[in-house]
Amino acid sequence: AYFSQRLIEEQRQLSRSSDVTSSSGEAGAASAVADDNVLEQITARITSKLKDELKKELAKEEKEMIQQKDRQQGEMECFLAGELEQATCPICYELMKAPKNTPTLLFPCGHTFCIECLNSHIKLNSRGTCPYCRVKIQNQAPNLQLQQLIDGFAGRKEEIIKKVEKVTRDAAESADSTNSFSLRNVSLSDREQLEDYRREWRTVSMRYRIYTNEAKDCDAEIKEMESKLEATRIVRKHLHGELEDAFKRMQKLQEEIDFIESQLHQQKEKEKDLDADIMAKRKRMNLVNTTKDSLEMERAKIRLLVEHSIPDDVDVFLES
């Protein structure tokens, strides 16, 4: 449109000069030839000038396109670097870099945590739910795409940071296409600070939600434990009654035991007395046997003496 307008203006000037030439008098055929030569020169000059301006405009547009492409690529790398810097585990704040902090993707919710924190969470949480959204974990797998991006970023970190700083300085006056509002009037240092605040806000918010869910789970578990505690108290009260009954029965048994022990003691004393009586009787029996033996010997002696005097009918004599 610009070049068309310029061409129209040049043609108007040319027509005006032609009108002046034709109205100047009677130039004749020689004047007409001169006018044709002038027209050709003017046309050639205009064409050359338009070509030069067109080349300049095309070169300018090409340069702007290259700059815009570089800026877009830099902004993309800047955005990627910022996101990768935030590719930390929402629980431990560590960069999810293999093998210790391998990023692990949960199914079906799609949230990612480092494998170490995830294993610790599963050990503590018997329900097996996601730490962020509390959806039941059906399966898990390493997030290979994120792991490759993190590994690539870790290897080119310094290079990307320098490029990001350059692109950030070049794009400081343009609107931030990733924001829902414009930061055009904000200085470069303030923009960087605001971006840091936004990333920190996202990370802290995610951790806040995780611990909020954890608090809800703890509250539910506390209520469940309190109900179990109430049931335990009822059982304990019942067992306390059973214990009192058992003590009463044990008291009765103790009385029976005491009675039996007293009877046993009496029987032991009686047994002791009987043993003493038996010993005394045995001593007396031994004494009696000894006396009897001596008397038997005395009888035999007397019998011999009687037999010496009366050989016949000794027994009749002695018993008469």
Summarize the structure.
GO terms for molecular function: single-stranded DNA binding; ubiquitin protein ligase activity; zinc ion binding. With 320 residues, this protein is mainly α.
Give the topology, please.
Layout (H helix, E strand, L loop, with lengths): L1 H22 L4 H58 L17 E5 L4 E3 H10 L14 E4 L1 H12 L1 H14 L17 H122 L4 H6 L1
Helix pairs in contact: 1-2, 2-5
Secondary-structure element pattern, one letter each: HHEEHEHHHH
The general outline is rod-shaped
CATH homologous superfamily grouping of the domain at 67-173 and 186-218: Zinc/RING finger domain, C3HC4 (zinc finger)
Strand content: under 5%
- Across the major sheet, the strand order is 2-1-3
CATH class of the domain at 67-173 and 186-218: Alpha Beta
Helix and strand composition category: mainly alpha
Mean pLDDT level: 76
Overall number of strands: 3
Bin the helical content. Answer: over 70%
Cα-atom radius of gyration: 63 Å
| Low-pLDDT segments | 23-27, 175-181
What fold name stands as the CATH topology of the domain at 67-173 and 186-218?
Answer: Herpes Virus-1
What is the annotated CATH architecture of the domain at 67-173 and 186-218?
2-Layer Sandwich
How is the biggest beta sheet arranged?
3 strands, antiparallel
User: How far is the N terminus from the C terminus?
Assistant: 189 Å
**Count of discrete alpha- or pi-helical segments spanning 4 or more residues:** 7
